[in-house]
Amino acid sequence: MPELSSYRPTERTVPTRSRERASYDRELVHSVLDEGYVCHLGFIRDGAPVVLPTLYARRDERLYIHGSTGSRPLRAAGAPDPGLAVCLTVTHVDGLVLARSAFHHSINYRSVVVHGTAYQVTDPEEQRTALDTIVDHVVPGRSADSRPADAKELAATAVVRLDLDEVSVKIRTGDPNDEPADLSLPHWAGVVPLARGYGAPVPSGDLDPAVALPGYLR
Amino acid sequence: MPELSSYRPTERTVPTRSRERASYDRELVHSVLDEGYVCHLGFIRDGAPVVLPTLYARRDERLYIHGSTGSRPLRAAGAPDPGLAVCLTVTHVDGLVLARSAFHHSINYRSVVVHGTAYQVTDPEEQRTALDTIVDHVVPGRSADSRPADAKELAATAVVRLDLDEVSVKIRTGDPNDEPADLSLPHWAGVVPLARGYGAPVPSGDLDPAVALPGYLR
Fold first, then answer.
1. B48, A115: Cβ pair inside 8 Å?
2. Do the bridges between strand B38-45 and strand A48-59 make them parallel or antiparallel, or are there none, so unpaired?
3. CA gap B193, B96 in Å, rounded
4. I want to staple B7 with a disulfide (CB 3.0 to 4.6 A). Which of A2, A63, B24, B195 is the partner?
5. Contacts of B201 in chain A (CB under 8 A)
6. By C-alpha distance, which of A107, A108, A97 is closest to A189?
7. DSSP reduced 3-state for A15
8. Position A71 pLDDT exceeds 70
9. Distance (Å) from the C-alpha of residue B148 to the closest C-alpha of chain A?
10. Alpha-carbon distance A142 to A140, whole Å?
11. What letter would DSSP give residue B208?
12. d(Cα B104, Cα B112) in Å, to the nearest integer?
């Protein structure tokens, strides 16, 4: 069966407002997910919502979330089926939108929201591949240049999977949307872009000076 | 009663692991909150968790969250008491931590988690002050240099408040924690710092060229 180019909208992925900002396009969702590596994972614990920042990576139509076997959400997801109901959100802030009116101030952003059920990965091969995927997602090429996890470390690491099925992306771009009557006001209007990047790598205090900076960090 | 210098730890703000990374210090919590302006707000809708990115600002021991009166969480918080149970999380990613072993790879970060009940602000004066606080939190000085919200706009804007009471901050800093046996491995180890900043402001396409860039954006 050919893969559909869009995720199917559901009652909870269609926003109540600014619907024109929502999309279900698969490639667009993937591109937003692949640009980040820290998500905010929401779940319910003792009847209350909990939101924790967590590392993730995508592999095809599956997200992998990394944690300790001792952490609360991963323990819950590892409990006997039916897994853990989660909402996983990834947000990139791209710019500050300054309008003439206080009311129309906004943020340019891209945000993916995934609803679903997270399950602990129990297959050792899938677990190992998922951990490599997460390391390489944060620093491409790194998993081949580090000591692989041993059996004890694998046992201490929980990997949770979440399939991409009920997914949407919401995007705001461009200029402020001022009221026509406000256009002649003397206030500056426009967008202040946010810049992201990396500083120079800082070697660990115990690093042998003979170990050169690898090419993938230059 | 003098304000305590720390928030009181509770069962849900004491982490199950890496407890040494958790703090309840009020000034530290404030500094992490004040450095950001986009939080991830978690709540429960139809029995499932939802996590949405949202603008916020702090005023003393209260957070204000901004939204439309039509948005789902704000409608819920505006419903008759007892408000909306939320978890509000703010995360700054400071660096990528590369260890010799795949297992000890990590992220340097600072993350505040606030548990509590959000209520819609109904006092018009508090609502107006809260909106100014949010605008000035994102761009200091901006609320005085924009057209204030009129009655119709205020009616269309929901502001939700969340008191800082059950709060913790979790921080990881510094070098990777490699195993002693791994220190002689030939892999580079250290931290890649993340850089954040702003690009040059981009005037709106409909901005009168006579309007100069304000000093607070230079």
1. yes
2. unpaired
3. 6
4. B24
5. 188, 190-193
6. A97
7. coil
8. no
9. 6
10. 6
11. -
12. 23
Cα B189–chain centre separation: 30
Measure the CA–CA gap between A150 and A139, rounded to whole angstroms: 20
- For chain B, state the CA radius of gyration: 21
Chain B residues near residue A98 by CB distance under 8 angstroms: 139, 142, 146, 217
CATH number of the domain located at residue range(s) A19-174 in this protein? 2.30.110.10
Locate the chain A residue with the closest alpha carbon to B109: A53
Number of helices (H) and strands (E) in chain A: give both, helices first.
Answer: 4, 10
The CATH class of the B19-198+211-217 domain is mainly beta
Residue type at A169? Answer: V
Chain A, residues 169-208, CB within 8 A of chain B, namely: 175-176, 178, 182-208
The SS3 call for residue A132 is helix
What is the pTM assigned to this prediction?
A: 0.94
Each domain of chain A, given as residue ranges in start order, spans 19-174
What are B152-207's pLDDT values in tens digits?
999 888 899 999 999 999 999 999 999 999 999 999 999 999 999 999 999 999 99
Residue A154 tokens read as 């694998």
